[in-house]
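SAMPLE LOG
Freezer: B-3
Tube label: C17
Construct: single chain, 493 aa
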Amino acid sequence: MKFIQNTDIQKFGVIALCVGTLAFPACKRDFLNIDPQAKQQAVTFWKTQEDATKAVNAIYANLRSWGNTAFPALAVESIPGDDAEKGSDPNDASYLNNFDNYTASSTEGQFQGFWEAQYQNINLCNQVLDNVPAISMDANLKARYLAEAKFVRAYSYFRLVRAFGDVPLRLNVPKDASEFNIPRTPKAQVYAAIEKDLDDAAAVLPPNYTSVDLGRATKGAALGLHAKVAMYLGKWDQVLAYTNTVMTMGYDLYPNFQESFRTNRENNIESIFEIQCELLLNNKDASNSQYSQVQGVRGTVGGWGFNVPTTTLAAAFETGDVRRDATIIFRGETTPQGDAIPTSVPNPMYNEKSYVPFSQIVSGYTEGSQQNVRVLRYADILLMNAEAANELNNPTLAKTSLNKVRARARGGVVGVLPDVTTNDKTELRNAIWKERQVELAMESDRYFDVIRQGRGTAVFGPKGWKAGKNEVWPIPLTEIDKSAGTLTQNPGY
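STRUCTURE (predicted):
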C-alpha cells in the first residue's frame, strides 16, 4: 500500500504519516507482512476491514523505526545512565557524549528525532481510533484493533512524559490548521490519559495469540505497562495489583538468561512485549531495524559499536552472576555462539542483549535487523512486584519475587547469589533497586529508574547531573519554533 494523501499536520511532532506510510513488509509475523500497493487516496480509505488491518499493522511497523530504537532513543533513554556510554570510535558521533554528561541542548537533533518518533506513533494510533469505529467489520476484531492502538499510544506517551515532563496531549487527529498548535499538557493529565488507555486496552486485549499474530499487544502487556506507569507515579497498591495479575497469566522466567535474548528465542515465555523486527531476504526496505546494527561490535561484521556497557555496570554484578557475561561482550572473548571478538576492536565492552551472531548477518542487509527489541519482560514484573510489596510492608512477598529473579542468575551454581533475607524495609528496597540495575541493564530503564528513586544527584552527579534541571530533557527547539512560542521550554534549558 502506498501513502494516503492527508493534509500536512506537522506541528508538535504530530506528523501526518498516513496509515500506509510505514506499512511495508514488516517484522517476522504475518500480521506485519503487507504487500506494497498502488497509491490509495484518503477518500477511498477507512472503508473496509482490510483498511483497518493495514492501519493497525502500520503502527507496529513504525515502532522499529530509527527514532524509536536507534540513536534518538538510545541518546535519550540509555546513554545518560551509568550502565551505558557512547562507545564506538572517539570522533564518531561525538555529540552523543553530551547526553552522557547532560550538556545536550534543545537544538540537539536526537531530541527532535525521539520526539517525532513518539508523535508519529501517536498519530498513527489516533488515525485508527478516529476512523476505524465507523468501518463495518467484525465487531470483536474492531474492538481489539482499537485496544491495540490505545496500548501503543500509551506506550509512546509514557516514553514522552518520562523524558520531557509536560508534553502536548493529542488524542485525535487535527481536523484543520486551528488545531495544530496546542500547548504542553501538565504531566499529571498525560499520565491520566495513559492510564485510561491502558485500562481500556487491558479490558479488551486477549492474553495471547496464535502464531500468525504473535507479537501484538496482549492483556498482559497492557497490565504490565500499567504497573510500570503506576510505579513511576508511586501508586504502589496498583503496581502490586497489576503485577499480581500478570503473575497468574502463564509467564515465567526463561531458564537461560543469555539465550533468552537471541533471535531464535524471541517472544518466549518471559516476553511481555517486544518490538517485532525481521530480516526479509529480497526485501531490504523492510529489513530496516537498526537497533542491533548501531550497537553491534565495531570492527566486525556486527555493527557500529555505540551504546556500550560501562565499567560501573561490569562491577555491579556479584561474583557468579551469569547475567554479567550474558549482558556484556568483552573484547577478546568468544561468545557462546562461537564468534571470536578481536582484541583490536575499539571498545572493551559491547551490548550482548542486542547482539546477533555473525553467522546470521547477511551481506547487503542491515546488520542484525532481525533482532527484536525487548520492551517488557517477566523479570521486570517480578521486580516491580517486589518493590511494591516492600513499599506496602509485605517483605515476605517482596523477597519471594526478588529471589526468583536471583535464582535464575545463579545459573544452577550452589553457593553464589544467595537469597536476600533481610526484613528491613530500607535494606530490602536497596536490594531490589540493585537487582533492577543488573537484571535490566542496557534495556533503557536504568536512567529513569534512578531519577524516579530520587537518587539522580547521588548516582549521576559526578557525571554532571543537576537536580532541578536534569529530571527532564529540553523540549526540542524546532518544536518550539514551529509552535510560534506556544510550547514553552523546561527550566534550565
